[in-house]
Inverse folding.
């Protein structure tokens, strides 16, 4: 039945769909109501597949939600979490180097010394 309607709409370009006030006894409206009642009582159900774009959106949303939960509950990156509290696939407005400098986590002498990757924590400039 749906395919028949689609075929009719495609083959007759002059057909227009419009809103009609209900319960005013328009012949076409009464036929539509009757067919709709028959469809829900006698017709076989059919399922329309979800659009690929919708599925991608749902997957992306679920992944971001899981990522945010992990980020909120992680205990080892609290100083970075205080600066960037929301996860996103978009740039956060900070360069990686700026985040390393502000948090003190990066290839700095003090950080390298803390992980025993350097023998001293002073900078090569003498500071």
């Amino acid at each position: 039945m749906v395919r028949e309607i689609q075929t009719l709409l495609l083959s007759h370009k002059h057909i227009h769909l419009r809103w009609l006030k209900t319960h005013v006894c328009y012949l076409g409206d009464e036929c539509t109501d009757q067919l709709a009642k028959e469809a829900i009582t006698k017709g076989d159900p059919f399922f329309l597949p979800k659009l690929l774009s919708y599925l991608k959106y749902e997957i992306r949303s679920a992944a971001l939600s899981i990522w945010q939960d992990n980020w909120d509950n992680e205990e080892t990156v609290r100083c970075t979490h205080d600066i960037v509290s929301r996860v996103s696939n978009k740039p956060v407005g900070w360069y990686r180097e700026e985040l390393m400098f502000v948090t003190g986590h990066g290839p700095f002498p003090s950080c390298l010394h803390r992980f025993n990757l350097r023998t001293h924590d002073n900078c090569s400039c003498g500071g």
Remarks:
- Residues 76-126 form one domain.
- The CA atoms of residues 72 and 81 lie 8 Å apart.
- The chain has a mean pLDDT of 79.
